What we know:
By secondary structure, the protein is of the alpha+beta class. It is 30% helix and 33% strand. The protein starts with a strand and ends with a helix.
Amino acid sequence: MKFYTQxxxxxxxxxxxxxxxxxxxxxxxxxxxxxxxxxSRELTPxxxxxxxxxxxxxxxxxxxxxxxxxxxxxxxxxxxxxCRTKNxxxxxxxxxxxxxxxxxxxxxxxxxxxxxxxxxxxGWGLTKRIEAFGMHRxxxxxxxxxxxxxxxxxxxxxxxxxxxxxATTYSPSMYHPPKEESSVPSAxxxxxxxxxxxxxxxxxxLFGNP
Length: 210
């Protein structure tokens, strides 16, 4: 089993970072995410919000899709978010459990800490290799997730500054979509177009349609 942890700080307030975190799909840095659906949501007696979402993503193996479950708890009084995700399929090959903690610092900035546990029960002398591969994927995912959240934060800032202004104030140079990895098959282009359409719809919601 391998463990991973990383922390970084945003200059924005907790409320804005939390909003960006839950609006992070779709974005150009997460083109492997095909859908994200809320399956339950409830308010606890303590005033925290519990949400469960099912996420469908394009798998590492060509032409495969995999389900991931995300369970989060938002405490608006304590200004904290705790979110856990884990894959529901191929768990014998590799089980990845990730946890994100988001809380406000005393200086008004927001700290996000990511932790992950990678475990393989595949055997055949490949367990350590699979776990090492999983660790590399987690490190890459965390960076791309941070880039995606930063992009959404920039869009939220601009939408607040240009409220009521023409949509032409938006500049595509705000982000630089990364190149597709070679593991993504050409047959997935139709899915990529669907994801791009969702991204344009989200962007239009923030800035209005021209």
